[in-house]
Amino acid sequence: MEKLYYNLSEEEFTKSRKVLLWIFAALFFFAGIYVLVNSLILGYKNIPPILSVAPFGISLFVSAVAFFATVKRKDLFFLIDDVRIEFRYGLFKPKKHSFLWNDIKELTMPHKQRKAKLLFNDGSFFIIDLTWLQRKKSSIIRKHIYHAAREKNLTVKKVLTLPV
């Protein structure tokens, strides 16, 4: 079996996209301040101060997106080889997971979801959720997990969806 390794931290926004996001967030922030200044300080009664909530909300959302685009996330990867499945991904506090093929008893692959459920020999399970990855990468990872499990003579179940 060939080794599959994806470096998930290499894909990021370009510098120009990051700058545009921050400019967009700043423009909406200043639009909210402009509405507040016109209604409260300059005394325009036809502009209620509640109208500033929309620009501030949009500014907050775009700032959060720009922050996550700017912050470098290190060591995000997905590895499948002869010995183990190992990965580290996530937006908030990514955790490294490593599962040996010898510890896995059964694999459940849903048809309509980008997930895979690993059932271990001790009765516990883990669901690998690939929905946040690009569709192409997640389908390649799922296919590689499927073929590796078949090669290791694991029980592979195909279901329509995984129950929540």
Provide a descriptive summary of the structure in words.
It contains three helices and eight strands. The chain starts with a strand and ends in a 5-residue tail after the last strand. The chain is elongated and about 75 Å long. The strands form two sheets. Strands 1-2-3-4 form a four-stranded antiparallel beta sheet, with helices on one face. The protein has a four-stranded mixed beta sheet with strand order 7-6-5-8, covered by helices on one side. The mean pLDDT is 86. By secondary structure, the protein is an alpha+beta fold. A hairpin with a 3-residue loop joins strand 2 (77-80) and strand 3. The protein has helices spanning 15-41, 53-70, 135-151, and strands at residues 4-7, 77-80, 84-89, 95-100, 104-110, 115-120, 125-129, 155-159. The longest helix has 27 residues, at 15-41. It folds into two domains: 15-70; 75-159, PH-domain like (Roll).
